[in-house]
């Protein structure tokens, strides 16, 4: 009951935007039932062939990936493509807009072998070789471990399964963070990346404009301690109750607080959303995370540095043999990268992306989306994201096959 009360309160801040003032007719080819379907059922529903693959990381975490096979053979050989979701998201991020709009389906339509990752602790990746998923030890990770352990085994598995020498990598928000962790701490993986596409690239976050985002990352460490006293170690794990709560809280004919709170998190762009889509999204998100993932973002927000998790002076000496956590050396991230960002993104400021573009050694593009109202979540849910971003990205990928 205590965990439920906590989740209910944080739900209002994180996903209470599930309804917005838009037409009752959806912009997308989607149905209400999509909110309640699992990934395999959702993908199959729209006529795509899906496979389920599992891997185990070196530190024992079980991960599930979904593979969408190309709709038809490509006339020329193409590298497979790996899509990685954001914080509290899952592989559903890339399919919820339905056919002709969702990036995963568009890639499959263009002859790509599409792989959808699910980070440890999320809905589809909640197992461990020895640890209980309810234990404190299971949830003792941040996005550093996702980049250091989850991504290597995922990439190696895909390359072996497809007999490819490289793959395309597309990450959204935290999906970009873990990529930079991987390619700086295990630089040999740069040779396995044909092209990296970064949506809302999140390495430097000094200029967060979201007041709710600032509040959450400021209080999260204390909140983690409080919840640990109640033997609660996971943050917003997936449960069907969230979809019901989102509808009860926000899915009204005249919502008021929900769109306002949502705008304060990701940036105001009310006209860019579809009510049915956001309700469906709330059926898949939040998908679960560790408190440490948000705490880690809070640390790099305060320091202005892209560096490993800060355990405090004594903890750092034990972990790193230094008083401060080591920096991620972005000069080691040498695979070609294309950065796409929103000018109205209240979580990833354009200046932070522009600085990242100067630091990375092989940036082939650093492009703001032309729509000045384009915000953080528009990369997954914007009505016009296909014409504004996806079509260009697919064309760009064709140059690196």
Give a structural overview:
This protein has 401 residues and is α/β, with parallel strands linked by helices. The chain is built from 14 helices and eleven strands. Strands 1, 2, 3, 4, 5, 6, 7, 10 and 11 form a nine-stranded mixed beta sheet that branches. It has a two-stranded antiparallel ribbon with strand order 8-9. Strand 6 (167-172), helix 5 and strand 7 form a beta-alpha-beta unit. The longest helix has 20 residues, at 143-162. It is globular, with a radius of gyration of 20 Å. Residues 1-24 have low confidence and may be disordered.
The number of distinct β-strands equals: 11
User: What helical percentage do the residues reach?
Assistant: 25-40%
Question: What kind of sheet is the major sheet?
Answer: 9 strands, mixed
Q: Report the order of strands and helices.
A: HHEEEHEEHEHEHEHHHEHHEHEHH
Overall, the morphology is globular
What is the terminal separation in angstroms?
52 Å
Q: In percent terms, what proportion of residues is strand?
A: 5-15%
Low-confidence stretches at least 5 residues in length (pLDDT < 50)? Answer: 1-24
Radius of gyration: 20 Å
Structural class: alpha/beta
- Figure out the total of helices: 14
